Amino acid sequence: MSAKPRILIIEPFYGGSHKQLITAVIDRLNPTDYELFTLPAKKWHWRARTSALYFSQLIPLDHQYTVLFTSSVLSLAELIGLRPDLGSCRKIVYFHENQLIYPVREVKTRDCQYGLNEILTCLVADTVLFNSHFNRTSFLDNVQPFLNIQPDFRIKNIREKVEKKCEVLYFPIRFSEFPSRLENSLRAEGEPECLHLVWPHRWEHDKNPELLAEVLIGLNERQVDFKVTICGESYQTVPQPFERLQEKLGTKLISYGALSREDYVKTLLAGDIVISTADHEFFGVAMLEATYCGCYPIAPNKLVYPEIYPKENLYNTSNALIKMLANLCRNPRVFRTRRDKFFEMFSFNPYSAEHLLPIYLDKIKGD
């Protein structure tokens, strides 16, 4: 009789970077070593609320699990309370993001349950992995302020209990799935006639589409020559600042909306500058993918970005971003020189799956 899997993998939000991470890990595991339980990447708030209850009923009682690997979407404390038989597993939690500093439109609308679930999850876990130093630091620094929201008494000394479990392990990007800038035949040496800007982010408020619209309209009003692709997942509603953008930019907006994987890669290879306007970013897979394909990254001087990119690639204000882009768009030769200098210095190795996956496997397998 064959042995049962000893690694239990749970992902309540099985899509995007969450799915990419799980896929990268299990591709290097023996299929008989693990069992995977997932829910579709929809209705995030309900996944965070109820997935522990759902999985508690789905995961078999007759098992030989010794390791449990999951993301912070799962309320691990609830799962272990419902399934104490899983408590003896070595429990590893990966934080793609954290809810303690997630930007909300109004503070009074914040649902504190999600942040509390993450704090309790850390207390139950044996190892807590964050995808960046910014993610780890911002979480730990806000544990006590978050708990202090409670009006009538104080819970103390939680950070100290959590911090000793916390490590940073960058997200493993499979750069091998993309042609590198050196292999890119779409980027001829004599081009571009005008720079191609790319914004490859989710169309949600935390990625700050308002700032992107302001910047593009500002460039257009200054009669700067450029073209732009706005891609990324758009979900059901179009951000209000995007509603008349096509009308205002005209033929400068060459692509608008989500792209197929093939077209997405082609866009990155044809792009010159990849832009982030985010108010919320703990790692930035899309930015690094675009950069690997040869786009010059420009990002806010905050969040995770100073951890990854040189200060020359960062901006502090919307006016600074407009000025930076205008200068580069008006001087393609200067732009190419700056881009070449960037790629001479920048290393993708710290973020590559080839480098990182053996570390992940050591953590999970514990061999």
Structure summarized in a few sentences:
By secondary structure, this protein is of the alpha/beta class. It is built from 14 helices and twelve strands. The model has no long low-confidence stretch (mean pLDDT 93).
Spatial strand order of the main sheet = 2-1-3-4-5-6
Query: Overall pLDDT, averaged?
Result: 93
* Total individual domains: 2
Assigned CATH architecture of the largest domain: 3-Layer(aba) Sandwich
Order of secondary-structure elements: EHEHEHEHEHHEEHEHEHEHEHEHHH
Shape: globular
Q: What is the CATH first-level class name of the largest domain?
A: Alpha Beta
- What about the largest sheet? 6 strands, parallel
Q: Give the N-to-C terminal Cα separation.
A: 24 Å
- CATH evolutionary superfamily of the largest domain: Glycogen Phosphorylase B
* CATH topology value of the largest domain: Rossmann fold
User: What gyration radius follows from the Cα positions, in whole Å?
Assistant: 22 Å
The low-confidence parts are none
Secondary structural class: alpha/beta
Number of strands: 12
Task: Estimate what percentage of residues fall within beta strands.
Answer: 15-25%
Give the helix tally.
Answer: 14
